[in-house]
């Protein structure tokens, strides 16, 4: 896992090409290139397997929606691509096969994505979930949904359903999205159950079934009766929770089929429309200077959040559904982090009357009041 921007890659790209207002770039040899224009293929790299009941499965499904929307394009996919130089190697192999549009779908793929963008000014390289610091190269960008919004709503379902007042959260790394999600989950739960607490457990891995099983077991031993997670592969935690007779809130994909009794709701990706629009923009030669040529974020306020609420399970009653719908309407003009928001020590971090913007929320580096557990030190 790396959160650092590839500064060297940005420097190389700055000398290789410079953006202009027409959406083109000038190569080092003096010729004009239009990133993404004329692509015969689209590449997608995934950090895990395409059938993980989670993050990578959702991204793979999005790639198949692109295949349906653009039947004349070849869609090239690669699973289990590490967050290191191997990612650049795989992306380069896709470019060699005609891909002038490449999606790097894991948070830690950013360095490799920027390196590839620097080496190929005519290729659009977009990365999912991380943030480019400073100006984006003319052929690169990041994108994501406001993940914490549907997680907040799922927290309402968990807060209403718990009998013990103890919720569990199994997460991988203390990056912005996971911290936002854990905080939003607790804030949603506390909005309907002020005494509820969320016990956060770190695995230091996007997908390690053994660590996930251990984390779930430890939470269940503490009396937690609703468990959710921020892991790429989600089946292990969900199956363990279901087997123990506890309740589940899903993440990344609809996994209700493996928790028929304990499934409450969850959050899942609907990447197809966004992926397709990025491809359409690149093929049209208008990527540079577009909304995708930077850090693109959407949510309930914009009405096109690709991260949506999962179906309800049988344990969610009508009153809970009404509360969630009312909260969702509020989020269209508000935020789960509308002040006052206090951290674990009771210090006010977001004052009363303040509604933070997306950028501020993605910089939250603390657990809110009601979360039990410490953030790992970097």
Fold and architecture overview:
The protein is an alpha/beta fold and 378 residues long. The chain is built from 11 helices and 18 strands. The strands form 4 sheets. Strands 15-13-12-11-9-10-18 form a 7-stranded mixed sheet, with helices on both faces. The longest helix has 17 residues, at 176-192. The protein starts with 6 loop residues before the first helix and ends in a 6-residue tail after the last strand. The model is unreliable at 1-23 (pLDDT under 50).
Estimate the helix proportion, in percent: 25-40%
Strand content: 15-25%
Strand order of the largest sheet: 15-13-12-11-9-10-18
H/E order of the elements? HEEEEHEHEHEEHEHEHEHEEHEEHEEHE
Label the overall shape. Answer: globular
If you compute it from the alpha carbons, what radius of gyration comes out, rounded to the nearest whole angstrom?
A: 21 Å
Helix-and-strand structural type: alpha/beta
According to DSSP, the number of beta strands is 18
Average of per-residue pLDDT values? 91
Number of helices: 11
SSE arrangement:
Layout: H1 7-16, E1 18-19, E2 25-26, E3 32-33, E4 41-45, H2 55-69, E5 74-78, H3 85-96, E6 99-104, H4 110-119, E7 124-128, E8 140-145, H5 148-161, E9 166-171, H6 176-192, E10 197-202, H7 209-221, E11 226-230, H8 235-243, E12 247-252, E13 263-269, H9 272-283, E14 295-298, E15 307-309, H10 318-331, E16 341-342, E17 348-350, H11 358-361, E18 371-372
Parallel strand pairs: 4-5, 4-6, 6-7, 7-8, 8-14, 9-10, 9-11, 10-18, 11-12, 12-13
Antiparallel strand pairs: 1-2, 2-3, 13-15, 16-17
Helix pairs in contact: 1-4, 2-9, 3-4, 5-6, 5-10, 7-8
